Amino acid sequence: MHEHPSASASWRFALPHSAAAVPVARALVRTALAELEHGADRDTAELLTAELVANAVEHTPGGAPIELVVELLPTGCHVEVHDPDPSPPGDLTRPTGGAPDPWQEHGRGLLLIRTLSAACGHRPAGTGKAVWFRLPVVPRQRTGPGA
């Protein structure tokens, strides 16, 4: 495998405001990381992207598309999901109340993002907001004989 320490690239994708956007967003992030042989953890990037997109679909009004922005940098990857609702995304950066029950279907997404990302947050964007996370480059594991 060739490492690209200075590789940087960015993509913007418009996604439908529906549950169909979630698997599409996962595939886009996985493909982007694989294509550049980027060092960020692909499984984590996919999972957190899916959570951001699912949150945007579930908690914002339909009608306007959701935008996925993927930025790959030498130090890591930065993923943003833009949605039409300017309201902040619940407890993304500040936990409120008790910890969510890990066995419950709802309430885990933002906890996962807070726990697994290097940094996360939200900012105003256009008429809505952008919710983002950042993952660092993970040192490659040596495998095979002599590792």
Largest sheet: 5 strands, antiparallel
Mean pLDDT: 83
Low-confidence stretches: 1-5, 100-105
End-to-end separation: 15 Å
Fraction of helical residues: 25-40%
Number of strands: 5
Name the beta content range.
25-35%
Main sheet: which strands, in order across? 1-2-3-5-4
Number of helices: 3
Secondary structural class: alpha+beta
The shape is: globular
The Rg value, from CA coordinates, equals 16 Å
Brief overview, please?
This protein has 147 residues and is an alpha+beta fold. Helices cover 28% and strands 27% of the residues.
Plain-language structure description:
The chain is globular and about 55 Å long. The relative contact order is 0.20. It is built from three helices and five strands, in the order βααββαββ. A five-stranded antiparallel beta sheet has the order 1-2-3-5-4. The protein has helices at about 20-35, 40-60, 110-115, and strands at about 10-15, 65-75, 75-85, 120-125, 130-135. Strand 2 and strand 3 form a beta hairpin. With about 150 residues, it is of the alpha+beta class.
Short descriptors:
single chain; 147 residues; alpha+beta; 5 strands; 27% strand; globular
Map the helices and strands.
Blueprint: E1 9-15, H1 21-35, H2 42-59, E2 66-73, E3 76-83, H3 109-116, E4 119-125, E5 128-136
Antiparallel strand pairs: 1-2, 2-3, 3-5, 4-5
Helix pairs in contact: 1-2, 2-3
